[in-house]
Recover the amino acids of this structure.
C-alpha cells in the first residue's frame, strides 16, 4: 500500500501538529507492506504560507498524491477534490471556539478550510473524544465518521535522565492568547515560586517573564524533571501533549478542569479553574502536597499513550480505504 502524507507541518511549526506528525512517522517507518511518500510545499514565512494555503492544499496536493492508494493530511487543510481516498486529522476546533486568538490570515482562511477538509475526507481522525464531540457540536459531523487516534509520548520523556537546576514551576506553550500564560505568571507569583515558560514566540503581543524560548526535546524533558510541577492553564486544547510528556517525566501536572486536558489526565492531575490565578496557585500547592500520588498516577496514565498504538490505528484506517 502506497500512502502519500502531507509533511508541510514540519516546515511550518515545531508545536503540537509537528510533534504529532513526527511521532506518527517514526512509528510507521519500516512497516512491512507500507510505502510512505512524503509530499510537501515551500518553507517557513508568510509568502510560503499564503501560497500553501491558497494553492497547494486546495489544488496541487491532490495532483502530487495521484499515484498513491491513500492521501493522509495530518491537519484539516486538504484538497477540495481529492483524487484518492482521503484521511484528515483534526486536532482541535479552536478556530471556532477562539477565533480572535489566531492571526488574521489563519483566522480568515482556517474556518472555511476546516469545513472543506472535513467534508472532503473519507475518514476524519480526532486526537481525543473531546475533539470528536466538538466536531459534532460545531460542524455537525456524525460520530461514526470520526475515529479517535490519541497522541503518544516520545521515549525522550521519561523519569530517568538529566534534571534542570533550580526551584521553579514550568509552563509549556506558544506565546499566544489561548495559552493563558498571564494567568500562570500571576499564579506563580501568588504561590511564591519562579515560573519558567518554554515555547515559540507567537502572536497577540504576549510577553511573559521567565520565557526560555523554544528548546530541544531533551532539554524540555530535563526542565520537566526538575520542575515542582507543570502548569498548563490553556483556555482550549484538542489534546494537550505537554500534560502527558510531563507525566512521563514523573512531574505532577496542574491543568484546566473540563475539555481535552481533563480527558488526557483522567484523574492523574490537579484540575482547577484555569482562568482564576488564585485557583491555579492553590493547584500548585496541592500538586506539591500530593506529589508521590500524582507521580505514580501520571506514569500509569502516560504508559497508555504510545505512538505505536497511534500508528496501528492509523494504518488500520488506511487499509480499510485502499
Amino acid at each position: 500500500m502506497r500512502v502519500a502524507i502531507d509533511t508541510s507541518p514540519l516546515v511550518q511549526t515545531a508545536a503540537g501538529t509537528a510533534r504529532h506528525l513526527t511521532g506518527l512517522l517514526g512509528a510507521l517507518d519500516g512497516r512491512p507492506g507500507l510505502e510512505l511518500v512524503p509530499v510537501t510545499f515551500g518553507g517557513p514565512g508568510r509568502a510560503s504560507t499564503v501560497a500553501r494555503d491558497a494553492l497547494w492544499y486546495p489544488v496541487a496536493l491532490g495532483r502530487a498524491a495521484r499515484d498513491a492508494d491513500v492521501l493522509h493530511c495530518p491537519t484539516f487543510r486538504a484538497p477540495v477534490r481529492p483524487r484518492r481516498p482521503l484521511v484528515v486529522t483534526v486536532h482541535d476546533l479552536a478556530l471556532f471556539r477562539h477565533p480572535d486568538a489566531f492571526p488574521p490570515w489563519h483566522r480568515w482562511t482556517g474556518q472555511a478550510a476546516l469545513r472543506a477538509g472535513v467534508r472532503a475526507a473519507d475518514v476524519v481522525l480526532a486526537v481525543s473524544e473531546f475533539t470528536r464531540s466538538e466536531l459534532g457540536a460545531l460542524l455537525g459531523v456524525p460520530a461514526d465518521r470520526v475515529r479517535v487516534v490519541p497522541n503518544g509520548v516520545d521515549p525522550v520523556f521519561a523519569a530517568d535522565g538529566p534534571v534542570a537546576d533550580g526551584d521553579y514551576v514550568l509552563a509549556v506553550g506558544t506565546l499566544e492568547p489561548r495559552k493563558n500564560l498571564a494567568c500562570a505568571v500571576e499564579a506563580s507569583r501568588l504561590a511564591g515560586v519562579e515560573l519558567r515558560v518554554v515555547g515559540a514566540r507567537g502572536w497577540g503581543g504576549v510577553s511573559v517573564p521567565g520565557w526560555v524560548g523554544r528548546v530541544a526535546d531533551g532539554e524540555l524533558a530535563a526542565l520537566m524533571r526538575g520542575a515542582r510541577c507543570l502548569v498548563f492553564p490553556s483556555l482550549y486544547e484538542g489534546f494537550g501533549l505537554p500534560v502527558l510528556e510531563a507525566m512521563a517525566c514523573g512531574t505532577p501536572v496542574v491543568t484546566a478542569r473540563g475539555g481535552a486536558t481533563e480527558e488526557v489526565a483522567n484523574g492523574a492531575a490537579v484540575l482547577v479553574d484555569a482562568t482564576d490565578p488564585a485557583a491555579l496557585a492553590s493547584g500548585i500547592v496541592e500538586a506539591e502536597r500530593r506529589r508521590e500520588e500524582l507521580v505514580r498516577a501520571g506514569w500509569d496514565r502516560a504508559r497508555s499513550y504510545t505512538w505505536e498504538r497511534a500508528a496501528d490505528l492509523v494504518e488500520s484506517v488506511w487499509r480499510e480505504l485502499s
